[in-house]
Design brief:
Tektin, 457 residues, coiled coil, Tektins, cell projection, mainly alpha
Length: 457
């Protein structure tokens, strides 16, 4: 009986069971129908000899042993169940702890990945901003480069205008072929154009070099930004992964550390250095554009001032030439009038001389005829003396008139030469006026404006 006062079940050991007796004593013969012997020996158990059995029973164990075996089996089973429950409880506790620690570590790493993604996003934002600024700066500087090239192309116009005008003024005739203020200012204008061209050429080279620096910095930012975009996408994808994600796999060797990996410090230094370099290059480009504006303002101002000075001197020269030409034309008119008067005077002198010659002939004829008087009639009377005085007087007057006629003829020749000189000088002045006014001012009217010289048009 157990502690509760009840008898144990019949399949468990009973109080009357004695399992210490020999099995041969416990096992009786089964019956005449059973074949074999009811003997169990250790040798039989070792060799596997089966005990005596008939059709329905085995005669190996006794009922007490059977009940003892049931008790032992039940006890072992309870022990196994208790151990299984203990293992289950411990396993569940361990699993709970492991899952808790795993979830904690996973959340911590997720937070770290999220923070890293935010850092990458911050750098990515700064890189995008810097890339946008440097792209705008490249566009502005390329515009300035086109402006400089346009200015260099336009600069050939004032150079050709000044050079052609100088060559044109070399065709002036000799009296007006002088190095005047207009020519001096034109030479200065040509020199100024060459100086401006050299300055713009150096500026163009500086812009091209600066563009190379900008494009190099932009390329570095683009490579870094591309890496940042890929890294941000990868880290964002890693943040979004969970234990139920369909893309998770076992990745053997994923824990290896590549030798070329950078550190957090070198990572920040690399990106900040790229940003600082891009900003420094952009600031140099902005400074260059400001310098370029100053160069354009000064160059255009100098060119326009010099052009105005040339136009002013040219206008003054044209006015002076016109005044000289008008004065020469007046002098030519006076010369022609005087030449006409001198020619009339010469004709008068010649007519007067002809009359005096006739009067001289008369007086000499009279004297000659009176020489034929004979004897006492050949007398030195008053008519004789009067005729002699008349011949003398007429001769003196003819000599004086001859001298005046010669002087008048010399004056006429001088007036003719003066007329020729005046006409030639007027022709020279008119040619100069044609070159300076008709052609020169027309050529100067094509001089480009300040906006065109600046490359803005």
């Amino acid at each position: 009986m157990n502690q509760t006062g009840k008898s144990p079940p019949p399949y468990l050991p009973q109080a009357s069971d004695d399992v210490t007796r020999n099995i041969e004593e416990l096992v009786d013969p089964i019956g005449p129908w059973a074949t074999g012997r009811v003997v169990l020996t250790p040798t039989g158990g070792i060799t596997g000899v089966r005990p005596v059995v008939d059709r329905y029973s085995v005669t190996r164990y006794s009922p007490a042993e059977w009940r003892a075996h049931n008790q032992t089996f039940l006890d072992n089973n309870c022990k196994t169940i208790d151990e299984a429950r203990f293992v289950t409880e411990k396993t569940r506790e361990n699993n709970t702890r492991i899952y808790k620690n795993t979830d904690k570590v996973q959340l911590e790493n997720r937070d770290k990945l999220s923070k890293r993604a935010s850092v990458i996003h911050r750098w990515k934002t700064e890189l995008e901003k810097a890339l946008h600024e440097i792209t705008d700066e490249i566009e502005l500087l390329e515009g300035e480069l086109r402006r400089v090239k346009q200015s260099l192309s336009i600069l050939t116009l004032p150079e050709s205008i000044s050079g052609e005008f100088l060559d044109m003024r070399c065709k002036r005739l000799e009296p007006d072929l002088v190095r005047d203020r207009v020519e001096e200012e034109l030479v200065k204008e040509v020199a100024l154009c060459n100086e401006v061209r050299n300055t713009l050429t150096r500026t163009r080279e500086s812009i091209e070099y600066q563009l190379q620096e900008l494009k190099t910095a932009k390329s570095r930012l683009e490579f870094d930004l591309t890496d940042k975009l890929d890294a941000y996408e990868i880290d964002s994808f890693c943040v979004s992964l969970t234990n139920t994600s369909p893309l998770i796999l076992m990745r053997p060797g994923a824990t290896r550390v590549p030798p070329e990996q950078s550190t957090s410090e070198s990572y920040d230094h690399f990106t900040s250095e790229a940003l600082e370099n891009a900003e420094a290059v952009r600031q140099r480009s902005i400074s260059l554009r400001k310098t370029l504006d100053e160069i354009f303002v000064k160059a255009v101002k100098d060119l326009r001032n010099q052009a105005m000075l040339v136009d002013k001197e040219l206008a003054e020269k044209i006015t002076q030439t016109e005044q000289a030409c008008q004065q020469l034309e007046k002098e030519l008119s006076k010369c022609l009038n005087q030449l006409s008067a001198t020619e009339n005077l010469i004709e008068e002198f010649r007519g007067a001389a002809k009359g005096l010659n006739e009067a001289l002939k008369v007086a000499q004829t009279r004297l000659s005829e009176r020489l034929y008087r004979r004897n006492v009639e050949s007398c030195r009377d008053e008519p004789q003396y009067g005729l002699i005085q008349e011949v003398k007087t007429i001769g003196e007057e003819l000599s004086m008139m001859s001298g005046q006629l010669q002087r008048a003829e010399e004056t006429q020749a001088a007036l003719v030469k003066s007329r020729s000189d005046l006409e030639r000088e007027i022709f020279v002045k008119r040619k100069t006026l044609f070159l300076d006014k008709e052609r020169g001012q027309l050529l100067r009217s094509y001089y480009p404006s300040a906006e065109v010289l600046s490359g803005l048009v």
